[in-house]
Amino acid sequence: MRWYYVKPHAAVSQYYLVTAAVIIAVCGSARSDTTGGPSFSPVDITVYYESLCGDSIQFVRNQLVPAYRDIGSFFTVNYIPYGKATHGKYVSNGVEKWHFTCQHGPQECYGNKAQACGINDILTNPERTKKQQDLVNFVGCVMQARNPSTAVPQCLQTIGMDTQHVSLVENCISSVAGDELLAAYGDKTLALQPSLSFVPTITVDKVYSQEDQMGALRNLTATVCKHIPEYNKPLNCSG
Ligand SMILES: *[C@@H]1O[C@H](CO)[C@@H](O)[C@H](O)[C@H]1NC(C)=O
């Protein structure tokens, strides 16, 4: 028996508790061609995932990290740590507060927020120049940790973030700044067309297709390769 929250309408801030006897598998700079040929943009991969989802953990470990190792310069990844969650604002004693619910409970919301803060720091930190490499290392570290919801500070150290930035991220996690980042990821997730049904959901060049979704879960390298123009296909795409 599992409990999860269903938010019937984005604008309705009332949550219905629903029982489900069965868990469906819901949780389930452009690189230019310096040889003079036409330039192309890296394939855009966006991953909608959540911190305590087994399928998200497997995708990061078995697809994302290896694909980045094989053909990392041919794609960029956007990470959207939110998944099947809900968010809304309510007013308590005249103060507005964010409220989140997550498929795997409050720990997962905390973990998603922590990753949102870590990702934001990497993206905005001028000292981190290899942002894509940082992000794949960071998310790879967090999602493969024993407890992904609390692994963020340690993983930032692992990728070489200085202690000052680690404390900035810790402040973000425990402040409204983290709530705002997570809510923004929620808005991006709710804007998905068709709406998110499986976690992780993967879009290619901002578009969802069932073929690419299934393909990415099976072999992300091959799926990215499919979207690289013939003239630019790396050797790792054949095989
Ligand atoms: C994934 O696809 C790549 C590129 O086509 C191929 O080289 C690789 O062997 C595939 N991996 C698996 C596990 O099938």
Automatic annotation (TrEMBL):
GO terms for cellular component: extracellular region. It is found in: Secreted. Pfam families: GILT (PF03227). Belongs to the GILT family. The lineage of its organism: Eukaryota, Metazoa, Ecdysozoa, Arthropoda, Hexapoda. PANTHER family: GAMMA-INTERFERON INDUCIBLE LYSOSOMAL THIOL REDUCTASE GILT, GAMMA-INTERFERON-INDUCIBLE LYSOSOMAL THIOL REDUCTASE. This is GILT-like protein 1. One of its GO terms (molecular function) is oxidoreductase activity, acting on a sulfur group of donors, disulfide as acceptor. Keywords: Glycoprotein, Secreted, Signal. Its main location: secreted.
